[in-house]
Amino acid sequence: MLIYNTLSRKKEEFHPIHPDFVTMYVCGPTVYDFFHIGNARSFIMADIIRRYLEFKGFKVKFTMNITDVDDNIIKKSIQEKKPASEVAAYYAQAFFDDMKKLKVSAATFNPRATNHIETMINLISDLEKKGIAYNVNGNVFFDVSKFNEYGKLSGKNINELEAGARIEINDEKKNPLDFALWKKAKEGEPSWDSPWGKGRPGWHIECSAMSTNLLGKTIDIHAGGNDLIFPHHENEIAQSESAFEQKFVNYWMHFGFLNIQNEKMSKSLGNFFTAREILTKYSAEAIRLFFSQTYYGGPLNFSDELLDSAQKGAEKIINLAEKIEHSLKAATDDGVNPDFNFQKYYDDFAKVMDDDFNTPQGVAVIFDFVKAVNKIISDNEKIKIQFFVDAKKFLKGVADNVLGIISLEQLGKSSEGILEDDLIKLLIGVRETLKKEKNFSLADQIRNDLNKLGILLEDSKSGTTFKKR
Ligand code: AMP
Ligand code: ZN
């Protein structure tokens, strides 16, 4: 399996540290607002990568942090006249709700920065003892000149970085690229006791601390959007590798931006749609298909036309799944045994996904499969049940479990649930007729038999309703 590693700027063969599990850390949201559909691109592509690793048989320790202490949260808490912790708790819950709606699998760990302050303080103390961090009036900075490899991820040297970065002027720093590990508390801000006085951690140290705490000093995969390469991930490397003197991450993966008119969708530019807004118009499956149709590392323009066509595409696949579901109920061991090579489709899918998660080609394999299976169904009057079992298994394993561009469980549940309710209503109607015909013993029998199945009938003046136990 090949993964494009931002650090080496080439595709590398994937070898996890442990043979049967993968440690994966993805930078999560700062919870001061609902996340936008651009953030969703990074979250969903990370989810697909994780699901594909699981498809390959790995267990994945998937970690996505919640940054719940930050300047933006403090700003919002002042605007809304609420404690910062309340603002963060509200948007963290909104984050989990929206992720679930987007069918993103639950993480193994969702650490919150404020639960790991002690580890961050210890890490900063270690850096200070080594002479790599320095304290100025309760603000602690990382001394970039002490880490020789600074710039290795972004592929630039310190001079280039200084020239290219918009760095805030701060008299306390020795070098403009030095960054805050610990920020001295200002009046009314959330703060914690530390060896440098009351304060709060800087953003970069949070990820170094939580990643090490939960996954170990060296991890397999660390991912995030392209905007995090510099300075966030560059700084994480500097902190962790200076403190632990070993490689921090083996494979660095970065997601391309979702753009609007070729400009990055971002909160600060105001050119964004929230994920929950988009979910009112398009299904999670369609949104996931829209993202899957572009290579994760490249840019993608947001467009209603592309989302509309993804919605139609997802419907095409689910229509076949529905047809298969019906055929499974009706099919028997009679009929033809079509000459169909399921293994070829699994192999094709794995081949393109093994090549740095080429989801656009993975999607193409699925559409080829849909076309071929539809043809077999329309060409043959009666087909043996095994064909439908295998076809469903492919759609479940690949389109549902890996890409999440269809939802077979929902399909089964909703159609079976509706059918079951319809059948109960039908029996209630029959019982009404029996009662009118004074056939009370048969009417009672229906009530008692339904009761045994856990379905309780309740008679009232306005008619009979039912409850499931
Ligand atoms: P934030 O809450 O801004 O830290 O962003 C959370 C995640 O979304 C990070 O991995 C960002 O890199 C990513 N992200 C932000 N904007 C976009 C965008 N327009 N397209 C893709 N990913 C983005
Ligand atoms: Zn991070």
Describe this structure in words.
There is one protein chain. With 469 residues, the protein is an alpha/beta fold. The chain folds into 3 domains: 2-276, 3-Layer(aba) Sandwich (Rossmann fold), CATH 3.40.50; 311-409, Anticodon-binding domain of a subclass of class I aminoacyl-tRNA synthetases (Four Helix Bundle (Hemerythrin (Met), subunit A)), CATH 1.20.120.640; 415-468, no CATH class. It is 49% helix and 15% strand. It has 15 helices and 15 strands. The strands form 5 sheets. Strands 4-3-9-10 form a 4-stranded parallel beta sheet, sandwiched between helices. A hairpin with a 2-residue loop joins strand 14 (455-460) and strand 15 (463-468). The protein is globular and about 95 Å long. The mean pLDDT is 94.
Compact overview of the structure:
The chain has 469 residues and is α/β, with parallel strands linked by helices.
**What is the helix content?**
40-55%
Instruction: Give the CATH topology of the largest domain.
Output: Rossmann fold
Mean pLDDT: 94
Assembly type of the chains comes to: single chain
CATH architecture of the largest domain: 3-Layer(aba) Sandwich
Termini gap: 49 Å
Strands in their spatial order, largest beta sheet:
4-3-9-10
Q: What small molecules accompany the polymer chains?
A: adenosine monophosphate, zinc ion
Q: H/E series, N to C? A: EEEHEHHHEEHEEHEHEEEHHEHHHHHHEE
Domain module count: 3
Q: How large a portion of the residues is in β-strands, by DSSP E?
A: 5-15%
Tell me the major beta sheet.
4 strands, parallel
CATH superfamily of the largest domain: HUPs
Total number of β-strand segments?
A: 15
Given the helix and strand composition, which structural class is it?
alpha/beta
Q: Give the radius of gyration.
A: 28 Å
